[in-house]
From TrEMBL:
UniProt cross-references to InterPro entries, sorted A to Z: Quinoprotein_ADH-like_sf, WD40/YVTN_repeat-like_dom_sf, WD40_PAC1, WD40_repeat_CS, WD40_rpt
Residues in WD repeats: 158-201, 303-341
Alphabetical UniProt keywords: Repeat, WD repeat
Domain of life (superkingdom): Bacteria
Pfam family of the protein (one): WD40
SMART domains assigned to the protein according to its UniProt record, in alphabetical order: WD40 (SM00320)
Keyword flag Secreted: no
Region of interest (Disordered), residue spans: 233-259
Claim: Transmembrane is one of the keywords in the record: no
PROSITE patterns found in the cross-reference section: WD_REPEATS_1, WD_REPEATS_2, WD_REPEATS_REGION
Skewed-composition ranges (Acidic residues): 242-259
Protein name, UniProt field: WD domain-containing protein, G-beta repeat-containing protein
Length: 341
């Protein structure tokens, strides 16, 4: 994200109720302790562990929104760590979170980890408010008994998947704001955020590892990552092109089938670098691959450097150069130059 004209990376390390920021220009890390909206750690379903985080700028302040596989969505002021809004603990967990701009305002797009799973929109500017029970106050009850949180963090609209959401992306299609969702159930859907209506449901694939939306050869295409391939889809018809495979070597494929399935793709992002639409994927074996979406091919050999699974990837620009930022379970964020591909 860009804050005051400077790039800022916001992330979580899966170890508690903390968010970290990295200023690439100064290579400076800052830890931000967030309040737990659901009470003491021992009372939460996950021990207060954040697994997914998104960020937006509201009135000049950074607001983060996130949760965990069994921890519902909440929003915080990054600088103070104070809770801005949260949802009831019986709501279910959060699998994915992203941000989208609607009518000039930032929203969080969230995907449930539950079955069935729902895609939800949360107003990033929304805050909870204390409300008074007038009758209880008049009868002399202690303020702690009649002051309650008004749970205004309710979804604007709901969209469904059979299983946990595993990929979210937003963009524009035919002049309309849309979100693309992919699920563990293999379903990929596009939704019109203004009309609150589905645009298309694609033919089912295997488990989705990530989704994207990008223009290829002048046409908007949905991109889906499966375990060993990346596939482009036509949002006008809901059909898929032939997949772009990670390896076409039969012997390599046979070797792979004997390995742990976690060595396949775990995450994906898409973007345009030097006028060329690309996808970047991170894998369970720690490698990072670049894909030429127009040429339907891999771009060179995979980047290698992570020790273990790569679970997050973003395309951005640093010092005027296109880069991919990847985060791994080795507790490292790495920067890869994409203009050399």
């Amino acid at each position: 994200m860009i804050v005051a004209g400077r790039p800022l990376v916001v992330c979580t390390d899966f170890s508690g109720q903390q968010v970290f920021t990295w200023d690439p220009a100064e290579d400076r890390w800052t830890a931000h302790q967030l309040e737990n909206p659901y009470g003491p750690v021992e009372k939460t379903m996950t021990g207060g562990c954040l697994l997914e985080i998104g960020a937006a700028v509201i009135d000049g302040r950074v607001v983060v929104g996130g949760g965990g596989y069994e921890q519902p969505f909440a929003q915080w002021d990054l600088e103070t760590g104070a809770v801005r809004t949260y949802i009831r603990a019986d709501h279910g967990g959060l699998a994915k979170v992203s941000t989208v701009e609607l009518a000039g305002r930032p929203w969080f797009v969230c995907g449930d980890s539950s079955m069935p799973a729902t895609v939800r929109l949360w107003d990033a500017a929304q805050r909870d408010a204390l409300i008074e029970d007038e009758e209880a106050r008049n009868e002399g009850y202690d303020p702690e008994d009649y002051l309650q949180i008004e749970h205004v963090a309710a979804p604007l609209e709901r969209f469904g998947h059979v299983d946990s959401i595993s990929g979210l992306a937003s963009g524009t299609f035919r002049g309309r704001s849309v979100v693309v969702s992919g699920g563990v159930d293999g379903q990929v859907m596009m939704w019109d955020l203004d009309e609150k209506a589905p645009v298309v449901q694609f033919e089912p694939l295997d488990t989705i590892r990530g989704v994207g939306l990008v223009t290829v050869d002048g046409q908007v295409r949905v991109v889906a990552a499966e375990q060993r391939c990346v596939t482009l889809g036509d949002p006008d018809t809901g059909t898929w092109d032939e997949p772009i495979e990670m390896s076409e070597d039969p012997e390599a494929e046979d070797d792979y089938e004997d390995d742990d399935e976690d060595e396949g793709i775990e995450c994906m992002t898409v973007g345009v670098v030097a006028g060329r639409p690309i996808a970047v994927t991170g894998s369970g074996d720690g490698t990072v691959c670049c894909w030429d979406l127009a040429g339907r091919r891999l771009l060179g050999e995979p980047f290698a450097g992570h020790d273990g699974e790569v679970f997050a990837v973003r395309i951005t620009e640093l010092d005027g150069r296109a880069v991919a930022l990847t985060a791994g379970r080795d507790s490292h964020i790495r920067v890869w130059h994409l203009d050399q591909r």
